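Hi team, as promised in this morning's meeting, here are the two structures we talked about. I've kept the exact order from the run log so nobody has to guess. The first one is mostly here for context; it's the second one we should focus on when we meet again. Sequence first, then the predicted structure tokens.
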Amino acid sequence: MHFTTERRLDDGVREREFTLGDVPGTLWTPTTSPAVPLILQGHPGGLSRMRPRLQARATHAAREGFASATIELPGGGSRSALPDIDRARSDLQEAIRAGQPITDDIVDRLVLPLVERAVPEWRAVLDALLDLPEIDGPVGYSGGVISIGVKLAIVEPRITAAGFFAGSFVPRSILAQAHRVTIPVLMLLQWDDEYNDRQMALDLFDAFGSQEKTLHANMGGHTGVPQHEGENSDGFFMRHLRAAAGG
């Protein structure tokens, strides 16, 4: 892992951009704490565009004593384009504009290649982050793309709690694996999200094998998540990451 920039934010947070191979990312850590737990911040791609929201989430987490990290998705931002995924995204947007059903084929072509590429990258970044003296674990996952988060929760034993954003279409093959998610889950659902299959999101939540799982559904579209859900997310990770750390 190579750190390329560093700055101190006004609220006592150290922000560092990094690269691991050809994967760019950002790490936020509290400046007043020793080794702390880590939250992996998922997002739908376009790290530069998403930075204000990710930074806000990381700042809230830092106030509670957590580090946060994110990476650019394959094909996103300055990374090499993935034409097949770009075509699938265009097909999805065209279907939404035309009011047509979103077929399983479109969802599979868009989401499954991202999962296949992003999950190994996240795990490699996690290896590097946990080698840093300021990161001690345990680890949580927060955000989307929800299928990436679900797959990470299945294959990565170091992740002990997950806050999923139900804001993207879910392939049926991911739904079929969801029973293997057994860690505590908090899932956020925007009831009128134009980029999400509401029933599929409900089916996914039902399929999780977790003994503790909570669904928060709010009225509104994709970008209308209420501010108080950030506080709920902070409380969720405070309970579960600190419990896993023995704190």
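And here is the second protein, the one for discussion:
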Amino acid sequence: MTTPARTLIGRGRVWHKRLRPTLHSFHYATYFWLLPMRSLRQAPQALIQRNKRGLMSFHDRDHGDGRADALDWFEELLLGAGVQDADGEVWLHTFPRVLGFVFNPVSFWYAYRADGSLAAVLAEVNNTFGERHGYLLRGPELKFGAEMRADKVFHVSPFCSVEGQYRFNFQVRAEPGQAPHSTLVRVDHDDTDGPLLQTSVGGRLAPLTHRNRRQAFFGTPLMTFGVMARIHWQALRLVLKRLPFHRQPPAPKQFLT
């Protein structure tokens, strides 16, 4: 039996840049967790306060179809999509709940093979209307540093129409044989006229300890409350810039693209 992997905490920045019809950009300090979901099944870790109240916690119902075990849901999703070789660790890149509150614009599920290669990545997207959609990336071209594309089918922002493509790029830096020490995810959106949005989230990684958790909590107070507040603040700025407004279309009938 392999030694269970430890939960990691990342501290870095969220960055967003809109290119058209007017330039609009912002960046914020943030932190996030990388949860080794299969290791947590084998050996729970008290620091993540799973499905409990706490300064920071992880609740399974915040992901997938809301069931009591989010990993069960993800494994069923993989098998239903024909991904049968994800027999290694499953890492979930997500925001924790802070004082019981969380809003995750996007979380990333990394499904590994036993040899350490990527079998699939799921981008699990939430919008502010309470809807959720997943973009599953897989295939022989899937690897860190490579660009992957998916058609946009899910409404996220009223300032972007549901058209075009997302371009995903996942980067992880690690010394040979060591746990990763930094990560960066880029998600860019192209519409029919070309590049429209450029976004990224990433930071340096460290094992989740009492000290690191405390430093993150007090270093970025009420971080997940701030996510929602900043979304609405940036929306107000775009309204003042008179950007076109797109009404919310019906959600896709299928969860997975």
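Starting points for discussion:
Residues 223-240 form the longest helix (18 residues).
Residues 8-240 form one domain.
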